[in-house]
Amino acid sequence: xxxxxxxxxxxxxxxxxxxxxxxxxxxxxxxxxxxxxxxxxxxxxxxxxxxxxxxxxxxxxxxxxxxxxxxxxxxxxxxxxxxxxxxxxxxxxxxxxxxxxxxxxxxxxxxxxxxxxxxxxxxxxxxxxxxxxxxxxxxxxxxxxxxxxxxxxxxxxxxxxxxxxxxxxxxxxxxxxxxxxxxxxxxxxxxxxxxxxxxxxxxxxxxxxxxxxxxxxxxxxxxxxxxxxxxxxxxxxxxxxxxxxxxxxxxxxxxxxxxxxxxxxxxxxxxxxxxxxxxxxxxxxxxxxxxxxxxxxxxxxxxxxxxxxxxxxxxxxxxxxxxxxxxxxxxxxxxxxxxxxxxxxxxxxxxxxxxxxxxxxxxxxxxxxxxxxxxxxxxxxxxxxxxxxxxxxxxxxxxxxxxxxxxxxxxxxxxxxxxxxxxxxxxxxxxxxxxxxxxxxxxxxxxxxxxxxxxxx
Length: 457
What we know:
Layout lengths: L5 E6 L3 H13 L1 H5 L3 E7 L3 E3 L4 H6 L8 E3 H4 L4 E11 L4 E6 L2 H4 L4 E4 L2 E4 L3 E3 L7 H4 E2 L4 H20 L3 H7 L1 E5 L3 H17 L12 E5 L11 H13 L2 E4 L4 E3 L4 E4 L4 E3 L2 E4 L3 E3 L16 E2 L12 E3 L4 E2 L16 H19 L13 E7 L2 E6 L2 E4 L1 H14 L3 H16 L15 H6 L15
Parallel strand pairs: 1-2, 1-8, 2-5, 8-20, 10-17, 11-12, 11-17, 12-13, 19-21
Antiparallel strand pairs: 3-4, 5-6, 6-7, 9-18, 14-15, 15-16, 22-23, 23-24
Helix pairs in contact: 1-11, 7-8
């Protein structure tokens, strides 16, 4: 039984937010029934995105709706509020929330009081001041971006197939990916695989006509899988005629020309930016302590240092790694830690409410797996190194075991099974991004190019 009534506010509906709320509603079931506890989840989207499956969604191996988990269905004992926290005043135990109705109401943000705060807003793409990037760059962090990129790649193949201008054709078939981490490498590997397959259905586009370029500022890619497996990944990508450029930066992509720091210039209509992330901007609008990189300073118990009744984990939190040999080391901001931190965080909130001792977050990094396309991958798990088909199979098996809910596991597994029996789908549904264009044209107007509303797919 809790010592006093508690209003728990969870900011963020990603890995940490969803799993923390899910565990809280299970651990505090009786208290929720008695009205002693109230859990509110504030999230900009009504779903949690399982990001490791985004590359496969982009390649068409998985339906986009099967890489997201509907929060209202999973968190049936929580109040799910679609909106964003714009500020947090922990001294007064209030958060300012902007909902979908805030602008229409014209009354400003809604102030939400709380007793316990979980800050898990995640991260946003780190955009560098590269000329032309804001105008032409494509991100790869959301399911909307993944499906939009798939449609874009197929559309470029359509343009190349129909144009009579060699310059337009060359630019359409040149794809530049910036960032050699998991997102960049897996997205490039899956999409190159898809485009290579799709080329068989074009009478005048061959796989060798396409240029795929990976730009990485450091001297290696996929650092999480180790140096040896990173070198293998580079070799495997280059064997597929993918141009991997290490110790190279994108200096400009203005006027649809990618200019690299090694002097190379590539006319291109596709620049995919996956060069890192940064903490969510809401952290700067709080009165809670952050480190030099803008992440919340946390204790090993996942409470925010120097405060009470405030907790954090995941990308937004600087959590001490108590398993590390060297002092001062922090847990890497990845899904492996986020899932486990959410469990400990929820348990510690329950312990705190019941006046029980807190537990320390302790997890030694198990390793990483990465896909390089269909039947290709690399893995470094518990000291064992795998490559090729075994690594790809381990990648699928691991993430199938980690995707939330039995419903999603069954749907993903069914899609994989069907993909083994039938041919790939190579249809572009880019018109979904502008659903009113046809109606506006029929009404005699000019089709608008406004982006779809947030949360659509």
